[in-house]
Design a protein that fits this description.
mainly alpha; 6 helices
């Protein structure tokens, strides 16, 4: 189910892609691929949740940017779009039993839910890290694909930490 949601999101964004977007297409593809492979390989739900959160934030940033480019504004635009994406993702995870409280918890919180929240913040940290690094180089990247590397590397490091914890 998550893989189909990711693929539908990717399809939507390929159809609505613009050259200057909030998050680049390759980053979204990398996040979606990471999510699909982690579930396929049987990696712990906390690690998978990290990638779910990253997909939510990446998709929400893309959508908010697309809506802005078409002059469609919501109250508290970015926050509203992010809330909509969470509402479209989290309840189906509950309904399908992927998020439950009978088992699979870490620190008293369901692993998928915990990973989703921390993955969202980790992805945002990677996006802000890219922008922060550019301030030291006159708005330019230090290395090619820095905009992709920062969020994906942040998620990868957090994935290793969660893998070691669980």
């Amino acid at each position: 189910m998550l893989l189909s949601i990711s693929l539908l999101s990717l399809l939507f964004f390929f159809l609505a892609v613009k050259p200057a977007a909030a998050v680049c297409p390759l980053c979204t593809i990398a996040v979606g691929a990471g999510l699909g492979f982690s579930r396929y390989l049987g990696i712990d739900d906390a690690v998978t949740g990290l990638w779910v959160g990253a997909v939510i934030v990446s998709s929400a940033l893309w959508t908010a940017n697309w809506l802005s480019s078409h002059e469609w504004r919501l109250p508290k635009h970015n926050l509203s779009v992010l809330a909509i994406f969470y509402l479209l993702t989290i309840p189906p995870l509950f309904w399908t039993g992927m998020i439950d409280y009978t088992h699979q918890s870490l620190w008293g919180v369901n692993k998928v839910l915990l990973g989703t929240v921390l993955g969202s913040f980790t992805f945002l940290f990677g996006v802000f890290l890219d922008k922060f690094l550019r301030t030291f180089n006159d708005g330019k990247v230090f290395i090619y694909f820095q905009k992709i590397i920062c969020p994906v590397l942040s998620l990868s490091i957090m994935s290793v930490i969660f893998y070691l914890l669980t």
